[in-house]
Amino acid sequence: MRRLVLFMHVSLDGFVTDPNGGMGFIKVDEEIFDYVGDRTNRSDMALYGRVTYEMMDAYWPSAPDKPNATKHEKEHGAWYNRVDKVVLSKSMKGQQKPNTIIISEDVEHRIKALKQQAGSEILIFGSPSAAHSLMQYGLIDEFWLFVNPVLVGGGGTPLFNNTQLPAELKLVTTKSFSNGVVCLGYQKS
């Protein structure tokens, strides 16, 4: 049975985007890439909303082949090309993509069915709208929140809104990075 794990960068005041929809406040570096890469390599499926999927799919399939590809680009690109992908999207309904399942309706039951299959875990990278949908049905088993030391001040996209069901969470890991970001890992109790 697979676990559904959310990886999300968030501001200290709980936003995943600024008021303009930007994510320029997010701090990433090699230390964070290495930490996330260790966890990513243990996972066998990725889940995205349409916008994040289109951004990822435009970059990662060829990223490892670039002559000046970084260690992160080589490793994450290889992982991206290897794993199955799930995309939550009404506008992509009926499209066929290699190693990709597009879910346009009956999200709750389709994701529950994927979680029942053999495998390690499904990682959700970003994709706030998809995360909100999954939280609404109580489908996320772990939250790995990368808290960035910045206050957005409102007007952006909140990580948690009124759509999620109440959930009791247990802190299972913390990691401080030299750039000021702190990862907080929570599991459903």
From TrEMBL:
One of its GO terms (biological process) is riboflavin biosynthetic process. InterPro entries: DHFR-like_dom_sf, RibDG_C, Riboflavin_Biosynth_HTPR. Residues 4-182 form the Bacterial bifunctional deaminase-reductase C-terminal domain. Coiled coil: none annotated. One of its GO terms (molecular function) is 5-amino-6-(5-phosphoribosylamino)uracil reductase activity. PANTHER family: 2,5-DIAMINO-6-RIBOSYLAMINO-4(3H)-PYRIMIDINONE 5'-PHOSPHATE REDUCTASE, DIHYDROFOLATE REDUCTASE FAMILY PROTEIN (AFU_ORTHOLOGUE AFUA_8G06820). This is Dihydrofolate reductase. It comes from Niastella yeongjuensis. The lineage of its organism: Bacteria, Pseudomonadati, Bacteroidota, Chitinophagia, Chitinophagales.
